[in-house]
Amino acid sequence: MLVADALLPRLHRYSAAGRLLASVGRFGDGRGEYRRVRGVTELGGAVVVLDSRLSRATRLRWDLSTDTTFRTPVAPLGTIVPQPNGGFAFSGVIGSRTAGLVWVDDDWRTTHTMRLQPPEPAASYPYVGSFNRSLFLSLGDIWLTGWSLTYPISVRNTSGVVRDSILAPAWFRNAPLEPGALAGPHRLVRRQDWFNSFDVIAGLFAVCDSLLAVVHGSLESAPDASRTHVRHTSATVLRQGSWDLVMELALPDDSQVVGATSDGFVILVATPPRPWTLVRTGC
DSSP of the chain, one letter per residue? Predict the structure, then answer.
């Protein structure tokens, strides 16, 4: 298991039993250094690390020693997915207020991109870039794409053509997009009131081989508005392909879904900086 600390920045490799095997990384621009880790994945016996501040990808050997680096054509956003050809795809910033996917082949050359414009009228609001996150998930020959503030989730082929849509649960509250929602007197109180008025899509996870988990939550602001935290509250579990509802799953308080496998979820069950624990769930 690989765990990245985005801001420290450090990368840790653990055994399946949770024993620390190796740690690397420090702050900087040089070899073996990072400014902000935004994505990590295993790829052909190696490890690929994306750095959003440096617009750089680093390939590490399995012992976490640095192999090679290259500049990415756009700043990575976080999602990174191995591809059958030995390359990988990652999400990035493509133009003003626009996210997309970039495909890189096994020679680390960019082959093509998929651009995603925020849904109207969201694209015209200045705070969308601060609170609206792009969502991507690869399920074989299809991609799920969406935005955290609103449904639907689009089901696309690898060319980017929308083939189907996943609609919101009946209880989901889309963000009310109103001019001046975050401006004027008492703006900090107004911002938390605005956060309390809607739900967000916190993540998309393939779980238990044939299921999709759409994790939902809410936004919470620090008292001084210095940062915004996404609180995970529930997961809507759907059958892949038909998108039929399997179950609604409540998540433990102060937990975060940080990954998923064929065996279940990987959940962070306490909020840093308190001591925390990663827990694997069963299907």
Answer: -EEEETTTTEEEEE-TTS-EEEEE-EESSSTTEES-EEEEEEETTEEEEEETTTTEEEEE-TTS-EEEEEE-SS-EEEEEEE-TTS-EEEEEE-STT-EEEEEE-TTS-EEEEEEEPPPTTGGG-TTHHHH--EEEEEETTEEEEEETTEEEEEEEETT--EEEEEPPPTT-------TTTT-STTHHHHHHHHHTT--EEEEEEEETTTEEEEEEEEEEE-TTSS-EEEEEEEEEEEETTT--EEEEEEPPTT-EEEEEETTEEEEE-S-TTS---EEEPP-
Each residue of 215-272: pLDDT tens digit?
Answer: 999 988 776 666 778 889 999 999 999 999 999 989 888 888 888 877 888 888 776 6
pLDDT average, residue stretch 127-150? 82
Q: Confirm if 252 and 265 have CB atoms less than 8 A apart.
A: no
Residue type, 253: D
How far is 104 from 34, CA to CA, in rounded Å? 21
The residue ranges of every structural domain in the chain are 1-117, 129-156+167-283
Q: Tell me the CATH architecture of domain 1-117.
A: 6 Propeller (2.120)
In the structure encoding, which two tokens stand for residue 203, read together?
A: 């993540």
Q: What is the pTM of this model?
A: 0.82
Cα angle 43, 44, 48; round to 5: 30
